[in-house]
Design goal:
Helicase, Ruva Protein, domain 3, two-stranded antiparallel sheet
Length: 202
């Protein structure tokens, strides 16, 4: 039986196994990435290792919106210029980052951390929906933009949130440009900008 560690030392094989667990990377891509990092040790591997150790120690969720940052309040929530009364509700941090890449939204965000799913037993309390309701009540929110996936669970979540907030603030959803079943993180900046501009009242 061939030795599993023929590619290198146990430490290198462990690194390859860990890299292969990352989204978008399989075993073959992980091997190529690790080999490249080792060959560029001073330029890439050592700075990457230091930065990953630093982020491991400092990264945390924003207590207000659920974004990932290095303080209890993320840079977006701490920016007074973003306090325009608008909150954009997204499923995941990756969706927030996609919206920020488009540079089309100047308000603040709320990351739910998932969508409602009866099949997976995910209810409002497992998400940041109660926190959203509190923010709307306490922060003078004038519009909640529901930028959730165009999937069954995403739309179920949007309808639930709308039912809880109707009459308390303006409710809108992303307009044309987002395909059925589409996720924000996979859309280009132009599509996101068009969808945000064409948002519609619920």
């Amino acid at each position: 039986m061939p030795d599993k560690n023929l590619l290198g030392t146990k430490d290198i094989d462990t690194l390859i196994d860990l890299m292969a667990r990352l989204p978008g990377l399989g075993p073959r891509s992980a091997r190529r990435a690790v080999l490249h990092l080792i060959r560029k040790r001073a330029l890439l591997l050592e700075p990457l290792a230091r930065q990953m150790a630093r982020v491991s120690e400092t990264a945390r969720e924003c207590l207000s919106c659920g974004n990932i940052g290095t303080a209890d309040t993320c840079d977006i929530c701490a920016d007074d210029r973003r306090q325009n009364g608008q909150i954009c509700v997204v499923e995941d941090v990756a969706d927030l980052w996609a919206m920020e890449r488009a540079r089309a939204f100047k308000g603040r965000y709320h990351v739910l951390g998932g969508t409602l799913s009866a099949l997976d037993q995910v209810g409002p309390e497992q998400l940041r929906i109660p926190r959203l309701l509190t923010r709307v009540a306490d922060d003078g929110v004038t519009e909640v933009i529901l930028a959730l996936p165009a999937t069954i669970d995403g739309q179920t979540t949007a309808y639930y949130i709308a039912s809880q907030l109707r009459g308390r603030t303006r409710l809108t959803s992303l307009g044309q440009g987002v395909p059925v079943g589409g996720e924000l993180d996979f859309l280009d900046e132009g599509t996101i900008t068009a969808a945000l501009s064409a948002r519609k009242d619920l």
